[in-house]
Amino acid sequence: MIVIGGGPVGENAAARTAAGGLRTALVEFERVGGECSYWACMPSKALLRPGHALAAARRLPGVPVGDRLDAAAVLARRNGFTSDWDDAGQVEWAEGAGLTVLRGRGRLVGERRVDVGGRVLTAARAVVVCTGSVPRVPPLPGLSDVPHWGSREATSAQEVPTSLVVLGGGVVGVEMAQAWARLGSRVTLVASGERPLPKFEDFAGDLVADGLREDGVRVLTGVRATGVSTADAGISLALSDGSSVEGAHLLVATGRQPATFDLGVEEFGFGAGDPLPVDDTGRVSGVDWLYAAGDVTGRALLTHQGKYQARAVGTAIVTGAVDPEPWTAPVSTADHTAVPQVVFTDPEVASVGRTAAQAREAGLDVRVVDVDIAVAGSSLHADGYRGKARMVVDERTRTLVGVTFAGPDVAEMIHAATVAVVGEVTVDRLWHAVPAYPTISEVWLRLLESYGL
């Protein structure tokens, strides 16, 4: 077995096949642990959490709090979560799991053949591509001539920028705008849509926009960037309404694309930068020995979903090595229609499954139930708690096909909704899943009552 890409997805696929008795090589050209460990999930949440804790304390009378965060301490703690960008611990884990770690960029050069820095390896069983994704750079005039941040620079900066312009209202944009604003930067967020987070329910983006404004972020919506240039302050971003914004740094957060560049996929009929099409076992279309998992498939660009896919891939390969009968992932819907996601802003957004619009587009007979999160648990949690919940029900089966929560600290509520969606639990049965009192989860009762149960 050869796994190209040593991030969490590659680690899971490789560990699965090694545990199944296959000699497995893990190929990584940067750091074992990948984007999530050093530039995405872990450092970004380490930057966000102290600000959330301070805001939560301010919402409760009688809790002594300071006026601001200790930025140096926050950055130092962030550095600790990345092990100061040293992957020695991750390599030690991989080798302890029985993997052979190979440093270098892996490139497909033939059937089951991978070139790693001039050394060509041949896999007896299969090759798995887990190379993740990279930032999508927009064709913005002047951008190539202006120093700017991508997500990596935004999560690894060692000093708080005096001012920051964030281009893009997606997850990376809103999270980094709030993190740096709470650390003392003067932040402007530019989003081309009516609100941030356009892929979520509308109320989620509205609540997050309000939260950003309360933190001093200037939120500009419905405008596009038309060009960028250097300025006395650092950069100047021209906008479609004729105005411009300036800042010391520019963060370009306009999405990501599969990292299939310089991988040799063209030899097998796939385009560089395009996702690798896979079935539910992770097998790449038309290539019986090639598998892929994670962002590189374009299915669900989330670490937890990639790790789920990797486990399915690893099991499929091990099972196939022992038993030639086809193997299918037990819950193929898990990375299609039951994907959980959290936006770690304040307020948080936690969702799973389809939005109301997506459910209708899929032809479902949909009923949408909206309630404010206003229960004893939320009142105790914070003075002035503001939040909303939505339940999307397929009336034909009376099961949930989508749930969204938006409000402070709702992230831990989403797994219950995920179980309900994946398990196709009916609303009638959910009535007997009694939430503990007094918790924010009591909002489930309000949802079911509003539905009519």
From TrEMBL:
The keyword Flavoprotein applies. GO terms for molecular function: oxidoreductase activity. Its EC number is 1.-.-.-. The keyword Oxidoreductase applies. Gene3D superfamilies: 3.30.390.30, FAD/NAD(P)-binding domain. It is an enzyme of class 1 (oxidoreductase). It comes from the Bacteria. Keywords: FAD, Flavoprotein, NAD, Oxidoreductase. Residues 339-444 form the Pyridine nucleotide-disulphide oxidoreductase dimerisation domain. Residues 2-306 form the FAD/NAD(P)-binding domain. It holds the Pfam family Pyr_redox_dim. Its cofactor is FAD. Belongs to the class-I pyridine nucleotide-disulfide oxidoreductase family. PANTHER family: DIHYDROLIPOYL DEHYDROGENASE, MITOCHONDRIAL, DISULFIDE OXIDOREDUCTASE. This is Dihydrolipoyl dehydrogenase family protein. It comes from Saccharothrix lopnurensis. The lineage of its organism: Bacteria, Bacillati, Actinomycetota, Actinomycetes, Pseudonocardiales.
